[in-house]
Each structure stands twice: as C-alpha cells, then as structure tokens.
Please model this.
Amino acid sequence: MTAVAVLLLVAWGSALAAGVAGRRSFCWLRRVPPVAARLPAVSVVVAARDEAAAIEACIASLLASRHPDLEVIAVDDRSRDGTGAILDRMAGDPRLRVLHVGDLPEGWLGKNHALWRGAAAARGEWLLFTDADVVFAPEAVARGQAWAIAAGADHLAAPPELVGAGWLLAAVEGAFTTFLTSVMRVGQVASRRSSAYFGVGAYNLLRADVYRAIGTHRAIALEATDDLMLGRAVKRAGFRSVVGLGKDMVRVAWYHSLGEMAGGLEKGALAQVGYRPWLGVAAGLAVLGVFEGPFWLALGWQAEPARALGVCAAALALALYLGVNQASGVPLWTAVLLPLSAALLVALYLRAVILTAVRGEIRWRGRSYRLRDLR
Model:
C-alpha cells in the first residue's frame, strides 16, 4: 500500500506541477486588451446537425462580433429538424453564408465533412471552427485572434465556459476536465519541445494556410475526436499551438443531463485507444484507480505512512481540480464530490466502451460508423 500511495502521489504531483508551470503560457481571452489594430480576415465555420434549439443563439452571437473582417459559414449537415430553415432565415446578413449538405460521402464522419465543406468555401486568412451550441461574447473572436498573432502561434484552442448544468452533472464535467487536462498535458502544448497537443470543438482557431498544409479535414476524415486530432496534426507538422481560456468569452451548455453525456461519450470513447475495447476497459479501470486511490487510502484502514501519503495525494488531486475548473466555470465547491463524480464519469465511459464493442459501431447523430472502418 505504501508503494501504491507513492505512485499516486507522484502521479498527482506531476500533473499539478505541469499544470502550474503551463499556466504562464495560457491566455485568458477576457484579459486581452481591446483590439485597436486591424486584424486579418477570419472565417468562422459552424457545423450543425439537428441544432434547431441552439443554432440561432450561436449565429446571432457570432454576427454580433466586434471584428473588422469576419464571415460566418454555417453548414447544415443533413438536419432533420428546423436547423436549415432557421439558417436560411438568418442569411439576410451579408456576413453569413449558409451551405446545405444533402448526403455524406463514404470515408467521412459527418461533422468532419461539414467542417471541410465550410472551410473550402471560406475566404479568411484565419479559420475558427466551432460547434452549433456555442455562444460567443462580442470580443471573443477578435481577442483570440489578436493574442494568437502576438504570441506567434499558428493555432489557438480555447476551452469554453461550461454553463447550465445541475450540480451533479457539473461535478462530473469537472472530473472530466481535470482528467482531460492531465492526460493531454495541456500545460505543455505551447512548448515546441513537447509532443503534447490540444484542440477543442468550441474554439479551434488556426491560420488558413496551416490548415491546408496539414491536409485539411481530409487528413482526419474518420477521426471521432476531430477537435483533438486537428490540434495533433498542427503539432506534428511543426507548427505552434497555444491554449486560451474562454471563460466569460465563450460559453456552452455541454450536456443537459447525465443521460445525454452518456450518449455523447459513445462517440469518442474508443478513439484515443485505437478502437480496441479491451484497452478502453483497462484505461477506464486505471483512471478509476488513480482518482479513487488517494481517497481510499486517506479514509481507509491503511497504516502510516500509506494513509499520510494518501492524504497528500488527495490534496493534490483536489488542488488540480480547483485550478482546472477555475477556468471551466464548474462550481468550485463540487471538488468535495470528486470521488463520486470521478466514479460516475468512469462508469459512463465504461458503459460507452462496452456498448460500442458489443455493437461493433459508433452511433452518433442518427448515423452508424463501423469500428473496422475507423481503426
């Protein structure tokens, strides 16, 4: 038990130290001074499938952007609700272009194809890929672009503020952001010496020439985690990525219930483990041990020094949770629920892995994709 406690202490200590060190390379978009200089043209590409409940607020917020040279390209990806009609009604604004996709070619995931179609029609020197349920503050696009240019970056990924969740869902989202930040080594993304990469569906901003140089979305046509894979392609090609923080500037109601989150996890549950279910189960159990281990040691029957080391590891885990979710918008008091929320997160993940393995396919937005085609 002492050896396990030491390993947990090292794991959480390393994750926290990397996060603290990396904070200097992060940028709060809300703290970027108002932009005075003229900026290069930017094209915002929005992929929307059955987003009638959210698309109008998203597009309206983008059209309210204080940017001197902005266009919005909204791609209606085979929607079965009123998404297309809403977009057509809003298209009276000359800055908005609406594309309707009628069918999905073989060898593509729907969202990736829609984003590719939108980017192909864009005229901007910069491209901002976003989701149809994201709401932007008027300065969000300009400040992110200005900071990326000033930092000499080719790509900026800015996680949004998560809003609208009840206390339990918010706690599970907080556990997820803590896990993702650690696993993706987000604090090291800006370093050219590190292989760490990052991307986020709500705010993936990059130069158009870099997008073409990495092969566009064609190069990641069948990647379920398209946002992360776009960031990976940027880093692997030798370009520079940086991370921004979108709180107060970029907002999204990520999920509305734990059931909806369970369904959402089915899309990407196996993507990061090469669509190998056994590895997905192993990864889920390992994550469960890393999250639950410190608290089990701290509150269990173990003798010293295992208990003391467990207390220290638990404190480090909570500190990382608080640091990460200060930027995510998740209420910080939910840190006290971390053992519960982490267990729920892993349970939802393992459910997604098992269902996907049994079905032999990913089901997402009314379409199925066979695992053997995605591997």
Remarks:
- The chain has two domains: 2-19+259-374, 22-167+177-253.
- The domain at 22-167+177-253 is CATH 3.90.550.10 (Spore Coat Polysaccharide Biosynthesis Protein SpsA; Chain A).
